[in-house]
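batch job 7 of whatever, protein = DUF4139 domain-containing protein
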Amino acid sequence: SAPFAGAMPQRAAETTPAESAEATAQVLFRYPQPVTLANGGTMMMPITARAIPAERLSLYQPNTQPRHPLAALRLSNGDSGETGLPPGVLTLYERLGGAAAYVGDARLATLPAGESRILSFAVDQAVTVDRSEQPSRTLSRATLADGVLQLTVTDRQTTTYRIAGAAGEDRTVIVEHPRRSGWELVQPSGGAAPDLTADAYRLPVAVPAGQTVTLSVALERPRIERFGISEMSPEQVRAYASSTELPPAAREALAKVATLRAAVADKERRVGELEREQAEIGKEQERLRQNLATLPRDSDLFKRTIAKMGEQETRLDGLSRELATARKEADTARNTLRDQVRGMTF
């Protein structure tokens, strides 16, 4: 049935149901005979009267109600030969003990022939849903060539729904699990493909009265990670070298890289220490020069300052030699790492 507006006139016109037809974007109803209505009057006119199959459901939408599903109906509009139904607001009743009891309102979009719609009208407080998520990561392939480590990684997002059923009756719960761009549904697997909405999978779950049912849903996404081995820290390389997901040959090669990378890090650390000491002495000498300008030349402090600056100059000469050697050793270690890495493949 469709919604009606206005109030019943004192004497309703006797009409037959309208003839319906589906246009491109709407459903049209035409009455077979003209209807006369007095000026200022109102009238209710039947446009269709037929039985439509309806299935009672519970629709779980996490973003709408995280703890309880929505009480819902699935309306099926017959075979392809039936007529579509127009959009409108439905008033729903349930027969209890021989009497009709109001249960809620639902908004119906246009329902073409041969299609179905799920309409929610209330919160199903008798059913409770607990949800938990567990991300994981699996390394499925690793290659090393030209100094680049390439990993084929599969990300997996597993969501577990624990559905506690109603105490007095069975339920069919439709779980709307969010779809994610680039991710594929891998669990549950087998059986018919789930119904899809614009942004969710619709997964049916039979929940017997008074029981708790678990549904596990898993999405997976493959992706590629690339790393320049020479630029990775020793800790990063050691982490991959100790990964049991890699074959022994790969772990052995990465362990060797980790040793070479650690040697480079030590050489670079020594260069940094010498450069910092050189900079600190330079700042100290600048301070001492400023002090000398204010000291009498024949004072003991002036002489001690000159002596200290002499010692610093001697140290700076030594630092220059040490720094040159350290930089050369760091370059050699980097070249060794680069050459070794370029020659590695697995």
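notes: The mean pLDDT is 85.
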